[in-house]
Amino acid sequence: MTILVASLLLGSFLSVLYLGYRCMLPRPILGIPYNQEATKNVLGDIPAWIEHEKKTGESLNWLPLQAKKLNSPIIQIFGNPLTKPWIILSDFRESQDILLHRTKEFDRSDHFGNAFKGLVPDHHISMKTTNPQFKVHRRLIQDLMTPAFLNEVSAPRIYDAFTSLVNVWTEKARLANGHPFSALDDVYRAALDAIWAVSFPLNPRDSLMYAQRWLLTSLTSINTTSSTDINEPAVFPEVSIPDVASSIFTLTESLESMMLSPIPKLKFWFMSQLPYMRRARAVKEATMASELEKAKARFSSGTQEERIARCALDAILRRELAAAKQENREPTYNTRTIFDEIFGLLIAGHDTTSTTAIWGLKFLSDHQEIQKKFRQALWSGFPVAIAECRQPTAEEISKSHIPYLDATQEEIIRKSVTGAGIWRTAMVDTVVLGHHIPKGTNLFLLGNGPDFIEPPIGKIPEDRRSKSCQEMNGRVGSWDPADSNLFQPERWIAKKDGKESFDSTLGPHLIFGLGPRGCFGRRMAYLELKIVLVLLLWNFELQSVPATLSSYQAVDKLSHQPRQCYLRLLSSPLNDLGA
Ligand code: HEM
Where does heme bind (predicted)? Predict the structure, then answer.
């Protein structure tokens, strides 16, 4: 009898265990292709994804491979063992339609939003568009992308930061004596200087580039350049990074590791218990509080007219004051909202733009003919600067419309795929390309594979597409599959009556997203990239480096970052005009 009861109990226990296991196995959405192997494992596609990352060093690159393997522009993967499968779409027209026209059906993705919630819980990036707070937050920062703010505040600050980078690299080129050197850290640091100076007043002597320049100026030579191998990279002494900047880098990195975590909130909680993270957060909070106090002091002195926005924080406080007046209440400046919105700018403003700029430097080093044409375009595009033997001013650069410059910038953005794709969550049960998508499903609109930098996967019948998608047909061109993977600025140039002009609708990219939740900082990013490209290419010739120093391997963090960027710099012929 005892044996019978024990066997029954054991049997029931094992059945419960088995049923539990079965319940945890990923459940596919009917009709959408998927990796059959993944459904036999509670971790779904994660092991294959990790394996791919170990082998290639690139994680999000695994998604286009899966789409091609399953031969479908819409696939599902099991990326989070605790939620519905993720839908991966590799088709520009359908993605464009979702982002621009189907905004009631698809909103800010829970997965993407959760990645930011730990660090900046009250930033609008994680809010749904229907959340009334979203509009309140957007109103606070609405001035920052106006032409007036961009031209009068952002452009000169960004220009100063990257002129300092030119000064540092002039010293490095002198000391390197023909040897290549890694450009990664310098570009990230100069970009942080730039967005810091846009966000808060920055004394140039406090910038990261300033101290580095003076350290290098004091040197007459460095050890590594005594090597007879001219390809041996030069290594320079580095000044130590102040606490504030290193905290921002630490926190940006913590955010980066959230993006690909299946459960970002939990991961952030564990990470935030680590002593170095606690310290970085404390430094950040103290710095934000001190900058806010300084801004309040600037703000309360002076008349309404004198309260001009000298930086992003001033512009935000002005908006809060205006809102308070309208709502007949006292302004509240010391809020989590203001802390998080301004810190969000610092993070979003330095990481993505610098990554894109670094890709640009790599492409231009590896495409000498394009670099030559780019410099010729600068020569004919800035005649006054040429006549006066000086580099163009911030104003001249931001107001310029030089087709080959704009085309090269757009091609760098397209080919860098700094953002591998765009996340959205289905807010209702809906349909994509004829497939039922249940409410709550996360979609990843892939921008780094088929239909963008590779040939599309098959031809999608028109009647499979939504009505609004069919109506939009032809508004944006498509790339020739034979060369969509090549770096070719000319693809963005339209020719009419023998005249060339830059045309951003000639083909697709999704790097900034689209529609009401597309990148808020897009205009600033374009402005910054333009300033960076003009200043660096005006001052330096980027000579090619050997293949071993020019790998295109990348690591997917907050952005898709190259692992290597070595530059061999010579003074540019344009710069020599002034010599
Ligand atoms: C090359 C540089 C940049 C790239 C590739 C980039 C890319 C992106 C992408 C892909 C998104 C999500 C869009 C979507 O879901 O549709 C985004 C959102 C955002 N970006 Fe950027 N970004 C860049 C520069 C900047 C800069 C310079 C700033 C600000 C200074 C900024 C601020 C933001 C903000 C605030 C959001 C959230 C918008 C929202 O939730 O509505 N970005 N960005």
Answer: 519
Do 526 and 379 contact (CB within 8 A), yes or no? no
3-state secondary structure of 447: coil
| Separation of alpha carbons 388 and 404, rounded Å | 22
- DSSP characters over 22-73: HHHS--PPTTS---GGGGGSTTTTHHHHHHHHHHHS-STTHHHHHHHHTT-S
Q: For 243-281, what is each residue's pLDDT tens digit?
A: 999 999 998 888 766 666 666 667 777 777 888 889 999
Sheet holding 86-89, edge to edge: 74-77, 86-89, 442-446, 421-426, 106-108
Distance, C-alpha 477 to centroid of its chain = 24
Does 565 show up as a binding residue in the annotation? no
Question: Which candidate, 171, 161, 165, places its Cα nearest to that of 203?
Answer: 161
With CA atoms as reference, report the closest residue to 533 among 400, 443, 425, 438. Answer: 400
Q: Report which ligand 1 atom has the smallest distance to the Cα of 125.
A: 40
Which phi-psi region, left, alpha or beta, contains residue 417 (left: φ > 0; alpha: ψ -120 to 50)?
Answer: left
CATH top class, domain 143-419+511-576? mainly alpha
The residue whose CA is least distant from atom 28 of ligand 1 is 521
So what's the pLDDT on residue 577? 65
Pairing state of beta strands 86-89 and 442-446? parallel
How much is the ipTM here? 0.99
Domain-wise residue ranges, the chain:
143-419+511-576
Three-state DSSP at 201 gives coil
Tokens of 165: 């980078």
Contacts of 464 (CB under 8 A, 6+ apart): 433, 434
**82 pLDDT band (50/70/90 cuts)?**
confident
| Rounded-to-integer distance, Cα 379 and Cα 111, Å | 47
In degrees, rounded to 5, the angle at the alpha carbon of residue 131 between the alpha carbons of residues 329 and 113 is 120
Q: Is the CB of 415 under 6 A from ligand 1?
A: no
Q: Which residue has the tokens 């993270």?
A: 277
Which residue carries 């001249």 as its tokens? 396
Instruction: Find out whether the beta carbon of 309 lies less than 6 Å from any atom of ligand 1.
Output: no
DSSP 279-296: HHHHHHHHHHHHHHHHHH
Please work out whether the CB of residue 213 comes within 6 Å of at least one atom of ligand 1. no
Contact in structure between 347 and 336 (CB atoms under 8 Å): no
Q: Where are the alpha helices (DSSP H) in 126-263?
A: 132-141, 147-149, 155-176, 184-199, 208-217, 243-259
For ligand 1, whether the C-beta of 419 sits within 6 Å is yes
**Residue 116 Cβ contacting ligand 1 at under 6 Å:** no
| Ligand 1 centroid, distance to 351 Cα (angstroms) | 10
For ligand 1, atom 17, the nearest C-alpha belongs to 519
Place of tokens 């709502």: 327
What would the two tokens of residue 445 be? 């609109």
Distance from Cα 348 to the centre of ligand 1, integer Å: 6
The pLDDT, as a whole number, for residue 303 is: 57
